Fold these 2 entries.
Entry 1:
Amino acid sequence: MRAFNFSAGPAMLPEAVMRKAQAEFLNWNNTGMSVMEMSHRSKEFMEVAHHMEATLREIMGIPSNYKVLFVHGGASLQFAGVPMNLTEADDVVDYVNTGVWSQKAIKEASRYVNVNEVAKAENSIPAPETWRLSPEAKYLHICQNETITGVEYQSAPISDKPIISDFSSTVLSRPINVSDYGVIYAGAQKNIGPAGLAIVVVREDLIGQARSDTPNLMNWQTYNDNESMFNTPATFSWYLAGLVFDWIKEQGGVDAMGEINQRKSKKLYDLIDASEFFYNEVDPSVRSWMNVTFKLKNTDLDAAFLEESKAAGLLSLKGHKAYGGMRASIYNAMPEEGVDALVQFMKNFEAKYA
Ligand SMILES: *Cc1c(COP(=O)(O)O)cnc(C)c1O
């Protein structure tokens, strides 16, 4: 029996994808091999790779002047990769600080370039009119969805600089306009597939400017020139990501995902807002559709909440230690029934202890 797993990442994968992978695990497409055992240079694996990229381009609506790179090192390596690929050491770059992931990006970038923090907030996104932008900045960096507090941009900010956005915990969760951004990057283990892979969607004119001492495997040009196969990629993660992209397309693409995700998150926020027992601290206009955080007014009941939810098959609801409370990560693969079960559990818990 599968539980509903609310982990922030690695997170649930669609059951249909897991079953397909299981069915073809030992013998992929009558090759007599697992996809894991295949040369990444083989014709068969190249087909997997090309299909995966084509499907991602289709479901995300990626224009032809954007390149799609499949990279190592997770989203975190791009915290350094972004400044190394786009700046020289004495340049200035603008970063909006909306929480822990913004701060990690700022800290890493600061090792390579002069970072100007344009605004800072924890449970909201400061109004863009208040951002202290630097005229000479090479780019503007944002974190599209702060996974720990559950703060999400509902649209792209407006800027005449390239916007670089960390989409790790919201990629493919709703329709976006890729051309609003210069670079979109994301680790796989939330909405794409298993860990071990990250994607960089980059406007082609932003490739080819890396510092001369950039390691080959951090240089976007290297990935672009070698179909992301300068060295051996995480082949099994690529394959599974491809199955997830096919699944999203079958569900009706990101338009359908967006409708479902908005509905799922609204069920939780409506319950929390109506409750005397639970609360959410995030500005309602920027609440995340992917990570719904909530706290119990009586924190003495936190342990009971976690224990009883686990016993009910609702797993990993403990909030991040940097923020506390609870967090329900409800990415694309979390079925709506999982959210319904959590809503019912929370109502029962409140009735029992209120
Ligand atoms: C999970 C996460 C990361 C880190 O991803 P890794 O792939 O583990 O490096 C970065 N940014 C955000 C917003 C995340 O949610």
Note: The pocket of pyridoxal-5'-phosphate is lined by residues 9, 74-76, 101, 143, 147, 166, 168-169, 187, 198 (CB under 6 Å).
Entry 2:
Amino acid sequence: MYETLIKELEKKDVQLVAVSKTKPPDAIMELYQKGQRVFGENRVQECVEKHESLPKDIEWHIIGHLQKNKVKYIAPFISMIHSVDSIELLTKINNEALKNNRSIDCLLQMKIAVEDSKFGLDGASILKIIQSDAFQQLKNIRILGLMGMGSFVSDESITIKEFQALKNQFDRIKEMKIFDESFKIISMGMSGDYKLAIAEGSNMVRIGSLLFGSR
Ligand SMILES: *Cc1c(COP(=O)(O)O)cnc(C)c1O
């Protein structure tokens, strides 16, 4: 599975985040041996433990909702945080990055799904954050793009519209020239909808069950 998927993604210049939440270290090492280095986790504690026990050249991404009081545990090593959904969280990440004498790459999570259980910012809130004075002060974070989760619905046209909304927001921010060319990541698409997401402009997919199976 991995080899087929990675070939398909490489052809389209799409990066794979292998979502390893709840998966044991040996399952992660299996993909590591095949060359995978970017893994996604949604819980801080689990991410810290895996970072400590697994090879240090793994790039860990946090993809799940992140509480401010837990940022300090991942700040020393995290490669990317996909789930930034407030200026308060962003400020906290900045301050913890500063303490660790580093910069942390972040994506802003946009709420695109019609289901209201999903976290994330609406388009207007994203613009408000990146145009705020508070945001200008944050020198130890980099916003590299946007992340979103589509609805789990059988009607593909709904998911497609959601992905288009994220892509449009991304393009709009790009045109504002607030960021340099490092603003380039569109993180959307999971096991069930990554093909749709790529067709709508995704360049980073977060795939778990398809890779690991649902053990
Ligand atoms: C679990 C998860 C994924 C991966 O989902 P699969 O359906 O297993 O591919 C992607 N993104 C987020 C935010 C997740 O929590």
Note: The mean pLDDT is 96.
